[in-house]
Amino acid sequence: MEFEIQNLDHVKIISLSGDLNANTAGEAETKLIQLIMGGNRKLIVDLEQLNYISSAGLRIFLAANKLVKKMDGEIRFCSLNRTVLEVFDISGFNMIFKFYPDQASAIQGFH
C-alpha cells in the first residue's frame, strides 16, 4: 500500500493505493492519526487507486473520524472505485462519511 499526502491550501489530501488490509492498516492509521494530531482537521481521502479494503482498513477510518470530529474537523472521501464503494455501502459507512466523485468536488465547501 502507498500513502501519499498533498497540501492544498488548508486541506490535506491523502491518496491511498494498493490494498488496505490487516497487514497495511497499522501504518496507514499511524500516519492518519499523526496528521490529525498535527492540527490537520480538513482531510480528503482519495481512494481512486485503492484496489481493496478490509474491515481492518475500515476501522482506521472510524478511529480517525472520531478523533477529527473532536477537533471540529471532517474527513471526506473521493474517487472510490466500484469495489471499494460497495464495501463502504455494505458496512454502512455511507451513513457516516461524505463521498465525492473527485478531489475538486470534495474540496468545495471546506473553509
Q: Helix proportion of residues, in percent?
A: 25-40%
Strand order of the largest sheet: 1-2-3-4-5
- CATH uppermost class: Alpha Beta
Rounded to the nearest angstrom, the radius of gyration is: 13 Å
Number of helices: 4
Query: Could you describe the largest sheet, including whether it forms a barrel?
Result: 5 strands, mixed
Distance between the termini: 30 Å
Account of the protein in words:
With 111 residues, the chain is an alpha/beta fold. The protein has one domain: 2-Layer Sandwich (Transcription Regulator spoIIAA), CATH 3.30.750. 39% of the residues lie in helices and 33% in strands. A five-stranded mixed sheet has the order 1-2-3-4-5. β3 (42-53), α2 (55-70) and β4 (74-78) form a beta-alpha-beta unit. The longest helix has 16 residues, at 55-70.
Task: Provide the fold topology.
Layout: E1 2-8, E2 11-20, H1 25-37, E3 42-53, H2 55-70, E4 74-78, H3 82-90, E5 98-100, H4 103-107
Parallel strand pairs: 2-3, 3-4, 4-5
Antiparallel strand pairs: 1-2
Helix pairs in contact: 1-2
